[in-house]
Amino acid sequence: MTETDPAALAAFIGNQRTEHHVPHRLTRQVLEMSESWFYKWRDKPTTAREVRRGQLADAIRQIFEKSGGTYGSPKIWLILVREGWRVSVNNVARLMAELGLAGRKILTGAGWTGLANGRRPRTSCAGTSPRRLRTRCGAAT
User: 101: closest CA among 122, 75, 124?
Assistant: First the structure.
């Protein structure tokens, strides 16, 4: 349950009465919710958008688990589009963040160069002192 999902919060308040015999009024007061707000959201039917979002979340979770937890949002988006879903990369990324799914980070070429003390390796000898030129770059000075 998240703070931004009012239907889930209203269901939580309703469940407190059925499961723990705590009156709605007491639960609403503790959570600082008005009575009119509770009755507005209590019997709200699930919308088509919420149903589709749940199906999309299930599809994303299945693809992510099949990949062994390595695919990120661009790859999952590509698979979803190939399966016939109409969804954007940003929506896939947002849903993955809400679900707590994160793909494996791929090291770029800079990650494999063996950086010394956090510095990039020297690619040329320009701008070095004459002493370093003799020892490092093999100059005959």
Answer: 75
Q: How far is CA 47 from CA 51, 53, 68, 91, in A?
A: 6, 10, 32, 18
Residues 85-98 as b/e (b if ≥16 CB within 10 A, e otherwise) read bebeeebbbebbee
Residue 47: DSSP 8-state? P
Task: Determine contact, residues 68/36, Cβ cutoff 8 Å.
Answer: no
CA atoms of 5 and 49, how far apart (whole Å)? 14
* Average pLDDT for the chain: 78
Which stretches within the chain are classed as H helix? 6-20, 24-31, 35-42, 48-66, 73-82, 89-99, 130-132
Q: Which residues pair with 119 in a beta bridge?
A: 116
Rounded distance between C-alpha atoms, residue 22 and residue 52, angstroms: 33
**Segment 60-86, tens digit of pLDDT:** 999 999 999 999 999 999 999 999 999
Q: Residue 122: is its pLDDT beyond 90?
A: no
Predicted local confidence at residue 2, as pLDDT:
47
Distance CA 50, CA 56 (A): 10
